[in-house]
Design brief:
Elements (H helix, E strand, L loop, with lengths): L1 H16 L1 H8 L1 H39 L2 H13 L6 H10 L2 H25 L4 H4 L17 H18 L8 H24 L5 H21 L7 H7 L3 H20 L14
Helix pairs in contact: 3-10, 4-9, 6-8, 6-10, 6-12, 8-9, 8-10
């Protein structure tokens, strides 16, 4: 009897330890869609980066010449809201109103987005539209490289993830209309922040599209595919004390750190970085 109980427990642990693998194949069609969309985003970015950037210069210049001061001010407001410091607001909301695990997943995803887009900018070394034409500068910029858009990747991840938390909360259960209103609000908020980066000359079309795509991919993997925020608290300790997961995490971390310093030549746009 005791042996049967032990075998049952071992089998349960084996299943739990293979959670990510099993979950991946359980939602295989969804994962294939995400992989295909990811490939499309990378292909579009690689082959259409220059034409989209050049088109952005004309688009932004024409738009800014016709826009009123009030419209410019409105987009400046949204670009400030999408800044790294004010993006702490949704993080604080999650910490105050949701569980510790959900707060951990949310904050970890946000930090990963910040780190990932920072490394991508170093790899690409892409200029911003207003570096090419200083008259386009109408907003706020941290001075770093432009591709992908940090506002786009972080905003796409933060607000859609926050919607998932609200949508799955007990208070909004069976309140379809309220959920739809919240979704529309978050989508509007996200689009306006992303659009502000384009309108104000901080980023080109390809940069905001690329950033938004990456944010959506991270969001989908964490909250739709693997649903990491729903893993029971008791499983977290066991998951991240398993040697194979520790090795995988360390390998990924080292891989990104190495690439950050190598600055892959294929991503280099070949302009004078010292000038900027």
């Amino acid at each position: 009897m005791e042996n049967e109980i032990k075998e049952s427990e071992n089998e349960k642990n084996k299943i739990d330890d293979n959670y990510f693998k099993k979950t991946f194949f359980k939602r295989l069609i969804l994962n294939i869609i995400i992989i295909v969309l990811s490939l499309i985003a990378f292909i579009v970015e690689f082959f259409y980066r220059k034409p989209l950037f050049n088109y952005s210069l004309d688009f932004e210049k024409n738009w800014q010449e016709k826009a009123s001061k009030a419209t410019i001010s409105m987009f400046k407001f949204f670009t400030k809201i999408g800044g790294e410091y004010l993006m702490a607001v949704p993080v604080i909301i999650v910490i105050c109103f949701f569980t510790l695990i959900k707060s951990y997943v949310y904050l970890t995803g946000f930090v990963f987005c910040l780190q990932f887009h920072s490394m991508m900018k170093i790899w690409y070394g892409s200029k911003r539209p207003f570096w090419h034409d200083e008259s386009l500068y109408k907003g706020i910029c941290d001075g770093g490289f432009g591709n992908p858009s940090g506002h786009s990747i972080s905003t796409s991840f933060l607000y859609l993830s926050l919607f998932i938390y609200y949508q799955q909360s007990k208070t909004l259960k069976d309140k379809f209309v309220v959920v739809i209103i919240i979704l529309i609000f978050f989508l509007f908020w996200t689009v306006m922040i992303i659009l502000s980066r384009l309108i104000l000359g901080m980023h080109s079309i390809n940069q905001v599209i690329y950033g938004s795509s990456l944010g959506l991919i991270f969001f989908a993997l964490i909250f739709i595919v693997f649903k990491i925020h729903q893993i029971p608290v008791a499983d977290y300790k066991r998951f991240f004390l398993v040697k194979k997961y520790i090795y995988i995490i360390l390998a990924i971390f080292c891989f990104f750190i190495i690439l950050t310093f190598i600055n892959i030549p294929i991503f280099n746009t070949g302009f004078d970085k010292d000038k900027y």
